Amino acid sequence: MTRQFPDGFLWGGAIAANQTEGAYLEDGKGLTIVDLLPTGEKRFEIMKGKVDSLTPVDGEYYPSHKAIDFYHRYQEDIALFAEMGFQALRVSISWARIFPNGDDETPNEAGLKFYDNLFDELRKYNIEPVVTIAHFDVPVHLIKEFGSWRNRKLVDLFERYAKTIFKRYKDKVKYWMTFNEINMLLHLPFVGAGLVFKEGENETQIKYQAAHHQLVASARAVKACHEIIPDAMIGCMLAAGTTYPYTSNPDDVFKAMDRDRESFFFIDVQARGEYPGYAKRFFKENNLTIDMEEDDEELLKKHTVDYIGFSYYSSRATSTDSEVLKNQTSGNVFDSVDNPYLKTSEWGWTIDPKGFRITANQLYDRYQKPLFVVENGLGAVDEINADGTIDDDYRIDYLRKHIAEMSEAIEDGVDIIGYTSWGPIDIVSASTGEMKKRYGYIYVDRDNEGNGSLKRRKKKSFYWYKKVIETKGINLEK
Q1: Which of 123, 180, 289, 353 has fewest C-beta within 10 Å?
Q2: CA pair distance 437, 4, nearest whole angstrom
Q3: Which residues does the Swiss-Prot or TrEMBL record annotate as the active site (predicted)?
Q4: DSSP secondary-structure letter at 326?
Q5: DSSP conformational letter for 438
Q6: How does the average pLDDT of the chain come out, rounded?
Q7: Residue 49 resides in a domain
């Protein structure tokens, strides 16, 4: 059964500066971490913190440098989003466009002006900007100078950056988020926090100390946002997806709970305002010491987020059986054993619409704060037909089933602000750097090597999603 979504529910899409804008050093922008991620085999090792060079290397292809040229084409793209009926567009601000080095004395006016223009263009079509302050984004200078988020200095620099954009855009932006997929810090620490590791370092200690600095910075940003824009909402953002136990063996059940807590740790602090007991036990048993300043705990307690933003692509499964663990799905950052009840995408991501409903209920039961689905989508290879059309029924099927389960979650009593599907226009894949892994309703003529006209072309899903929005989610059929 399909139901009408509530009045005021925000339909739209989500993109990120580093995967769309290009113009990577234009108008005074500084180098940022994703500008150092090439395509190919090295990419994943660099994402994990094994970084040989903090400058681009000759002969490597860096897809973020040009991306899909949203920096120069945003008006064209926003017009297409408006044609679909978008009520919200999630974007991120590039920190290095505002403070090219991260510690500059004054902000870069050209960077500030770009986002002024972007938000004005969205407002022209009554599209609500939903803005992430840091989406896998640290100015590279801050890595060289301070070691990135391992250094407490970044808390002050991030707070200054956040206050700068709050003051500038206070009349244009009502929905904010602090860090994109903050839990990714544990899995891809260079992407999540700009962390570069030397041989022999205690990486776990460094990651959790960096996490503390980000959590304090997030709380300071929440405080500043509430003071500067009292009617705004500011949230956190989790890479979500419930972990299932492979069997009903209590050891499997406990391991699955433990895996989920790895991610919940961050949101527990941001939404509840304190370090949970299981985290304190983990620190103790692993001889980790989190260096805190005197007022950190009070700050975290007083300045919790207004809502929980989250991405959902797939569920996960885990086991304590060494034989079962041999059968891992490929492609996803989060380890998962094969779930015999579910299919996977071309990139090995488990497809589990019911898991979306389960995850939404789990988050709402845990935090009792509004949720905002800010990423959900299917990466797939799209073929252009002889007549120029693109029949992406597989994408429609994925989204249709997930939206239907989101409707069920709302019926369950889960408070959901809106839904911004990931990559409404084809963009550079964050995980692989590919263009052929496409999520969009709009095709962009660019290949994995950066060749192509960048021409935009509507897919079948473009017209389908337009109909979904027009009918407030009632008509989900192709």
Answers
A1: 289
A2: 31
A3: 375
A4: G
A5: B
A6: 96
A7: yes
State the catalytic residues: 375
Tell which residue, 384, 369, 451, has the closest CA to residue 414.
369
Task: Determine contact, residues 292/219, Cβ cutoff 8 Å.
Answer: no
pLDDT digits (tens, 9 = 90+) for 426-456: 999 998 999 999 999 999 999 999 999 999 9
Rounded (to 5) percent helix, strand, coil in the chain: 45, 15, 40
- Tell me which residue of 390, 465, 354, 382 sits closest to 420, measured CA to CA: 465
Nearest to 161 by CA among 227, 94, 219, 211: 94
Host domain of residue 183: 10-470
Crossing angle of the two packed helices 203-228 and 250-267, in degrees rounded to 10: 50
Q: Report yes or no: 51 and 36 within 8 Å, Cβ to Cβ.
A: yes
Q: Which two tokens stand for residue 321?
A: 């059986």
The alpha helices in 286-388, defined as continuous H runs, are 296-302, 353-367
- Can you read off the two tokens belonging to residue 114? 């770009």
What's the total number of domains in the chain? 1
Asked whether residue 475 is assigned to any structural domain, the reply reads no
Whether 101 contacts 477, CB under 8 Å? no
Interatomic CA distance for residues 13 and 89, integer angstroms: 5
